[in-house]
Amino acid sequence: MFKREKGSSIWAFMPVTILTAVFCCVLWGSASPAIKIAYELFQIPADDTASRLMLAGARFTIAGVMTILFGSLLARKALVPKVSSLKNILILAMVQTIGQYYFFFMSLANTSGVRGSLINASGNFLAVLFAVYIFRLENMTLKKILGCIVGFLGIIVVFGGGSSLLAGDPITFAGEGAMLVAATFYAASGCLIKIFSKDENPVVLSGYQFFVGGIVLFIVGRLMGGSLVFYNSGCVLNLIYMGFISAGAYTMWGVLLKYNPVSRVSILGFINPIMGVVLSALFLGEYSQAFSPSSFLALLLVSAGIVIVNINLKKS
Question: Are the C-beta atoms of 160 and 143 separated by less than 8 Å?
């Protein structure tokens, strides 16, 4: 059924492409439950913002080091940023790591992993709007409009649709609202990476901005009086894994984009919110939310929106 073209890269072989994309989406989808589990392992209460910042900082410092190492191995040379790229790295660190993950970590201390995963997916649709109307990188098309409408309907379901999904904690800015802000930062950072990568390797940009942003978050959290206590080996393993989520998924997704058409890879991103919901149910016990009719409808709409936005309607 699947034939690998002679001389083509193994990464362009469809079964390998799909399996690698699923692996990346499993990593990204596991971020929400991994962070909530980290709060328990490190015994960080929901109102301890300073310690949450230290945890986020430690994670992304590790992610930055891993990304640079993985990228250097793939490139077979040490990845060092150009002097002219330092300003862009600082801008990305402020938007993609400091801005986005300040609100991301805040949100997951105040909402469920299922809700967080679904609302976080709104970044895919906000990125389209940012790219068209703010950064002027793309033109609006009918399928993009339709995909955004369908996807945002799914987010609306999370915020106010269905008593079964909302039969618990109320909607709050510190919870669901913070995740929407994080998704906004994600959308802006995606456009900035596209602009800055014209003059610099995107792996270099991402790796070094992870590292810089992580250091800043850690220092700010420490100055605010936070602490990060390693109570057992589980804390160490959890922190390393959270670093690998960003480094591993980003690096492998970049490899897929290098050897495959963008549309083929991007459309597989619909798996991401699915993994987030399923893994939150498995590891956090959020079965009632994950498998409720409202949650299923939201997941269906969000995933369909991602597919519609990214599907290539032109015949190859």
Answer: no
**DSSP codes of every residue in 9-46:** -GGGSHHHHHHHHHHHHHHHHTHHHHHHHHHHHTT--T
Whole-angstrom distance, CA of residue 227 vs CA of residue 150: 42
CA–CA separation, 170 and 218 (whole Å): 30
Q: What is the pLDDT of residues 138-166, one digit of tens each?
A: 788 888 889 888 888 888 787 665 443 44
Distance, in Å, from the CA atom of 153 to the CA atom of 10, rounded to the nearest integer, reads 38
Contact call for residues 105 and 53 (beta carbons, < 8 A): yes
Per the CB < 8 A criterion, the answer to whether 151 and 301 are in contact is yes
Query: Residue 252: what residue type?
Result: M
Instruction: Give the predicted TM-score (pTM) of the model.
Output: 0.83
Find where tokens 């805040």 sit: 106
CA-CA distance, 286 to 220, in Å (whole number)?
32
- Residue 51: band (very low, low, confident or very high) from pLDDT cuts 50, 70, 90: very high
225 sits in which H/E element:
none
Q: What is the DSSP letter of 121?
A: T
- Separation CA 264–CA 241 (nearest Å): 28
Residues 170 and 26: their CA atoms lie apart, in Å, by: 28
